Amino acid sequence: MLGYEWFDEKEIEQIESKFPNIIKRSVLSFNRRLSHKYECKVFLKREDRQIVRSYKIRGAFNAISHYKEKAKLKGVVCASAGNHSQGVALSCHFLGIKGTIFMPKTTPLQKINKTKKFGGEFVEVKIEGDTFNEAYDSALKFEKETGAVFIHPFNDFETIKGQATIGVEILKDIKEGIDYLIVPIGGGGLISGVGMYFKKKSPETKIIGVVPEGAPAMYESLKAGKVMRLDKIDTFVDGAAVKEVGTNTLDICKNVVNRVIKVPEGRICSTILRFLQDEGIVLEPAGAMAIDALEDLKDEIKDKTVVCIASGGNLDFSRLPEINEKSLKFEGLKKYFIVNFAQRVGALREFLDLIGKNDDIVRFEYLKKSNKEKGPALIGVETNDRANFSELARKMKEKGISFEDITENEIYFSLLV
Description:
Layout: H1 9-17, E1 28-30, H2 32-38, E2 41-46, H3 56-66, H4 68-74, E3 76-79, H5 83-95, E4 99-103, H6 109-119, E5 123-127, H7 132-146, E6 149-150, H8 157-173, E7 180-184, H9 189-201, E8 206-212, H10 217-224, H11 247-256, E9 259-263, H12 265-278, H13 285-292, H14 294-297, E10 305-310, H15 320-331, E11 334-342, H16 347-352, E12 360-366, E13 374-382, H17 387-398, E14 402-405, H18 410-416
Parallel strand pairs: 2-10, 3-4, 3-6, 4-5, 7-8, 7-10, 8-9
Antiparallel strand pairs: 1-2, 11-13, 11-14, 12-13
């Protein structure tokens, strides 16, 4: 493509062939369950099976290797919400290069500890800022002050080349044409590299990008035609939660991406739990995004061949209660109500009689107030069929019970639950 002379598919193939054993050629596996569900052939590129449990090791290693001579003198620095940091840390340890890694306070402890483990004596971790972009600003300041080589998680051409090696492996391993390639997007380095390689080697493949609804930086930037810095993001999908994409990655995505889909965090959680329960596969939120997007494409992928990149499996298991909660809320199987009970004997018993046999009260907070006719209670209810909530609401209205569903009320929910 004109203007992209820096990207040579033969160079990408050479990079892939020379990777050391700290980078695995990850498996491309046919998924029977998803293929049956969506009436197509679904393959998963399992980057969660890398030593650092994500694809980020590819770009980090290639970039540090490229800048190795200066890096040996001044060291390297990076900013990351977790996966890039682990790739940089392991690469530094393997190459014997000093690294300083800035991570935001929202980074799961599991990723912080693994970064320290992979880097050992070669890496220092600094926790600064509430978001990736704040940690990123601190890393840039460190670069100016020390002369360290900045290893960008997505906007550096050498990082992009490293990520492109996933495309080399996919096309080596598959025996048929690929109709759809579905790729998660944070800053855009992965889809830029793989997308560029596919456009040269498999131009008929449709490249679909996926962003979380709460952090759709690439979606908004492509829509505006320029880099858009988001004022506020949901950091739940920590591996893809960036406020601002790269100038290089945006430019590339304009040319190689056919479409970008926004997927809801709650449904991502359901996808994570389904893989954990049905197949014993551990995926982090960003790692599940491409697979989750199959639901949005179900009408057009029938009888097609689809590859989803499972980009990472660095799931902190302490987050499972939160993931389960978000999944249940999204599926409509859990709701929270403020119920105003009449302050008289038997009022609570009357409410309990309205609860169906498949409904379960999982939270109840009530404080009786003096000199008041009614007292509010916070009640959480879980059920096995979302239709049961319509029946519960009908019964409460019939009995004249005053209530409010606060499940989707962000202000009330954050204060009370």
